[in-house]
Structures are given as C-alpha cells and as structure tokens.
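Batch queue: ligand-bound targets. Current item pairs a single chain with guanosine-5'-triphosphate. No template structures supplied; prediction is de novo from sequence plus SMILES. Inputs echoed for audit trail.
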Amino acid sequence: MLILIPTYNERENIVTLLRELQTSVPEAEVLVLDDASPDGTADAVEDVSSELSGVRVLRREGARGLGRAYLDGFRLSLADDFEVTVCMDADFSHDPGDVIRLAQGLKAGADVVVGSRYISGGRVLNWPLNRLLLSRGAALYTRLVTGLPVKDPTGGFNVYSRRALKALLLDRIDSDGYSFQIEIKHTLWKQGFRIDEVPIAFTERREGRSKLNRGIVREAVGVVWRLRRFRIRV
Ligand SMILES: Nc1nc2c(ncn2[C@@H]2O[C@H](COP(=O)(O)OP(=O)(O)OP(=O)(O)O)[C@@H](O)[C@H]2O)c(=O)[nH]1
Ligand SMILES: [Mg+2]
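Prediction returned. Tokens below.
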C-alpha cells in the first residue's frame, strides 16, 4: 500500500502525521508530494525519513497544483507496482486511523473507495456553517449537473486500485483544485469502475492555513459543465 500526501506549507502537521501513520498502518509506504513549500515541509519529511521506514518525499518543481501533484504520485505508484493507493490530506482532517478501514473496501470488490462525509455515519466536525454549505452545495451541484452518483465528490480521502489508476492515467485530467477530485471520480465512474463510499469523520485542519480560494471554487463551477458535455456526447 502506498499513501500519497500532497503538501503545501504543512510543516506543522506532516511529521506528527507521518508518526501516526507509522503506528496505525506500519506496513504502508508513504510518499509526500511537496510543491516547494517555502516553510520547508520537504526538509522536515526528509529529516524524519531516516527514523521512520518507508517514507519518501517528491520535491516537485515548476507549476504548483494539487491535481498535478497527485498525477505525479499516481504515476510513481504504478511504476512501483503498488496494488493499493491511498490519498489523504496532511492537515489531520483525515484520520490516519481510518486508512485500513477504507482500504478494506477494495477487498470487498470496489475499485475506488471514497471516504465520505455525506453518507449515513459520516460527519464534519468544527467547520463553520459557510464552509459546510459550500461543500454540501458543491456536492449537490455536481450530482445534479453530471449525474455522478457519489455523495461526497470533492473529498480527498480516497483509495484506488491499481486497475483504476491505470485507466485514469490514460485519460486526460485537466483540473486541479477540488474539481480534480470531482473529475477523477467522474472519469472512473464513466469507465464503469465500482465506487463505494465509506463514512468518515472529517475534522477542521489542525495547524497551518487553508489553501482554498475563490479560484478553486470558480474552477469547480466550470468543470462540472465540461464533464456534463462529455456525458452527453458519449
Ligand atoms: N502539492 C500540493 N499540495 C497542496 C496544494 N494545495 C493544497 N495542497 C495540500 O492538499 C491538501 C488539502 O489542502 P487544504 O488546504 O487542506 O484544503 P482544504 O482541506 O480544502 O482546506 P482547509 O482544510 O481549510 O485548509 C493539504 O495536504 C495541502 O497541504 C498544492 O498546490 N500542491
Ligand atoms: Mg484541509
């Protein structure tokens, strides 16, 4: 199992998270996908990697972006022959203790397991109302426009089978922010992969600052219409 963690200025969270992962999923390898964080996140990972086994950092250069970082991670996961690839945020919104439970969904026959805030048993803790409304609104909007039958399309705590990642990389993925999460799930759904949702409790980030901005939201608003056009054509 390979756990991919994209980071931008997560120095305050990443080392603690890596330690917790070592305890909860000792057999997993971890690849941190860092976009030249000015706060030295990549150096912090490198420092701790001598002490924790199976921890690496990819120092990305050039254009910054969550989607781009993940695509690099997917390519490396396939190149290294991992059967199971887990994606999670660095800020403790995603509980390291949930990784095993999510990964078990692949054993149950799914190709993609979505850690879901918006199915029965899922929860969001400590989010202001406006943030919750934005996220729930985005989920509803995506479903209405594209028909994607996933209750939490923007979530970033997901597990992919090797088969699904392979298919994904053959497709062209253009978006980057939240819409990247939507586009991946939409692409795999259109290709007929089985997507299961498993409830998670999502918590507001522990330390550091949010990278959510208007541009990311605007991108998502446009992307779902592009996905819909694609749906009508096929
Ligand atoms: N490599 C890379 N990682 C990023 C980039 N933007 C965000 N991230 C990471 O992606 C994950 C999700 O980003 P967040 O800023 O937590 O986004 P969010 O969860 O919607 O917002 P908050 O939790 O409120 O901060 C975190 O681990 C970030 O460090 C980026 O441009 N490049
Ligand atoms: Mg976050």
